[in-house]
């Protein structure tokens, strides 16, 4: 007798293999399909791992609730983003947030009001961009409306 966890893990691995098989042959060597391990992840997202590697991360818990046609369509949408090289580039928001916070702390010390406001504005913009990127509801809504 197999446990629910074992059968669930098998189903997840089977789905990941199925998705990997849907990739065009020219992408199969450098695009990986993985289940996400985040706490509150978006349904699906692409992430550049290295210079020539891309990972498609899928929230398998939410993924299994969709019909097979919906899954295929959403997956092909991500594949098209990879083929068109429109994967969002990561990183500048965190760097801007760190620079802005460092500048704000430095300007509190110097007490120059204009530079403090500029540093806080940089923090606000980069923080808002990070919030937008990590807002899972918006991402799911956009993916569903794209159909």
Could you explain the architecture of this structure?
There is one protein chain. The longest helix is centred in the C-terminal third of the chain and has 22 residues, at 113-134. This protein has a 3-stranded mixed β-sheet with strand order 1-3-2. It has helices spanning 4-22, 60-63, 68-83, 92-110, 113-134, 136-145; strands at 31-35, 44-50, 53-58. It is built from 6 helices and 3 strands; from the N terminus they run H-E-E-E-H-H-H-H-H. A hairpin with a 2-residue loop joins strand 2 and strand 3 (53-58).
Q: Any idea how many domains?
A: 2
Uncertain segments are: none
Q: Please identify the structural class as seen in this structure.
A: alpha+beta
Give the termini separation: 41 Å
Tell me the number of strands. 3
Sheet with most strands: strand arrangement: 1-3-2
- Note the run of SSEs as H and E: HEEEHHHHH
Main sheet overview: 3 strands, mixed
User: Given the structure, what is the number of helices?
Assistant: 6
Mass-distribution shape: elongated
What portion of the residues fall into strands of 2 or more residues? 5-15%
Mean pLDDT: 80
Radius of gyration: 20 Å
Portion of residues within helices: 55-70%
Task: Please provide a brief summary of the model.
The chain is α+β, with helices and mostly antiparallel strands and 147 residues long. It has helices at residues 4-22, 60-63, 68-83, 92-110, 113-134, 136-145, and strands at 31-35, 44-50, 53-58.
Write the topology of this structure.
Layout: H1 4-22, E1 31-35, E2 44-50, E3 53-58, H2 60-63, H3 68-83, H4 92-110, H5 113-134, H6 136-145
Parallel strand pairs: 1-3
Antiparallel strand pairs: 2-3
């Amino acid at each position: 007798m197999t446990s629910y966890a074992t059968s669930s893990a098998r189903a997840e691995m089977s789905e990941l293999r199925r998705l990997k098989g849907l990739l065009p042959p020219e992408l199969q060597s450098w695009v990986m399909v993985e289940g996400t391990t985040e706490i509150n992840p978006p349904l699906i997202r692409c992430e550049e791992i290295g210079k020539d590697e891309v990972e498609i991360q899928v929230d398998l818990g939410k993924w299994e609730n969709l019909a097979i046609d919906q899954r295929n369509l959403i997956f092909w949408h991500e594949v098209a983003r990879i083929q068109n090289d429109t994967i969002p580039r990561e990183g500048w928001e965190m760097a801007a947030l760190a620079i802005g916070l460092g500048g704000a702390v430095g300007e509190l010390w110097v007490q120059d009001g204009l530079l403090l406001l500029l540093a806080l504005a940089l923090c606000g913009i980069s923080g808002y961009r990070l919030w937008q990127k990590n807002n899972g509801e918006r991402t799911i809504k956009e993916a569903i409306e794209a159909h």
